[in-house]
Amino acid sequence: RILIEYGIENIPNKPILGYGVGTFIDVNPLNFYSHNNYIEVLFGVGILGFMACYFGPFAILFRAIRKHSLDIALVILIIFLLDVSVVSYNLKPHMVFYLYLRPIAI
To answer: How would DSSP label each residue in the chain?
Structure first.
């Protein structure tokens, strides 16, 4: 909780571009990951990077809902929930999974 609070307090200092990818662990007082992907992304790459990171998954989610592919929508929602407790923005398998789901949801 301390790490998430640290992120929330410091994100407004550099909201557009953030502090740099992967810097959260280096600058927080405990030298740990925040264990929250949303905080890590906003802290590291700011609002612009956050939008770039989550544009694809949100587009897939809305397309899946629109096409009534509720199983795909559910999988993406579960991934969004997991991102609260995991730092995954730098994991290639995570992004490959989204790329795999995109054609299915179209």
So the answer is: -HHHHHHHHHGGGSTTT-S-TT-HHHHSTT-S--S-HHHHHHHHHHHHHHHHHHHHHHHHHHHHHHTT-HHHHHHHHHHHHHTTT---TT-HHHHHHHHHHHHHH-
